[in-house]
Amino acid sequence: MAAKAKPSAGQQIIDLLAERNQTLVTAESCTGGMIASALTDIPGASAAIYGGYITYANSAKSRMIQVQPRLIGDYGAVSNQVARAMADGARNTARVDFAVAATGIAGPDGGTEKKPVGLVYVAVSSELATVVIEHRFGDLGRDGIRKATVDAALDLVLQVLTSDPPKP
């Protein structure tokens, strides 16, 4: 008898959030809604996914999820600080339990020596903490970088959910 396949990260996220009666919002720049799409592709997602913000323009980050323009000016839209502010801002604006944010350089243009194509920051915000992970995927091509970012975002959400104690 074959072993049952482990559910995808997205399925595990939906199951855990629904079981705990918690919700998640996305705040996406370089992925343009792909994280939300990956989650809402899963049946039952409506029990756990609040919605998403596509904050591609810097002004959208500020207007929609309250990222301070000074942060973007000081550190750049692709930075640990802005990813953290995106996740925190989305969670606070939506008034949900968790938020996942992604900002990066998907290419083919826009990279520099300090911030090359393939540099992505993924952040997950909860009431306990905000975790930010820097990824340097390299030049996998625009689609490859965006897909790798979605996978990294889902993996980080799952890590946070499985390390966060459920609310009583």
Task: Please give a structural write-up.
By secondary structure, the protein is α/β, with parallel strands linked by helices. It is 42% helix and 19% strand. It has 6 helices and 5 strands. Strands 2-1-3-4-5 form a 5-stranded mixed beta sheet, with helices on both faces. The chain starts with 8 loop residues before the first helix and ends in a 5-residue tail after the last helix.
Quick tags:
alpha/beta; 5-stranded mixed beta sheet; 168 residues
Strand tally, please?
A: 5
Strand order of the largest sheet: 2-1-3-4-5
Structural class: alpha/beta
Average per-residue pLDDT, rounded, comes to 95
Helical segment count:
6
Radius of gyration: 16 Å
Poorly predicted sequence stretches spanning 5 or more consecutive residues: none
State the helical fraction.
40-55%
How does the overall form come out from the CA principal axes? Answer: globular
Note the beta-strand portion: 15-25%
N to C succession of SSEs: HEHEHHHEEEH
The description of the largest β-sheet is:
5 strands, mixed
User: Could you give the distance between the termini?
Assistant: 38 Å
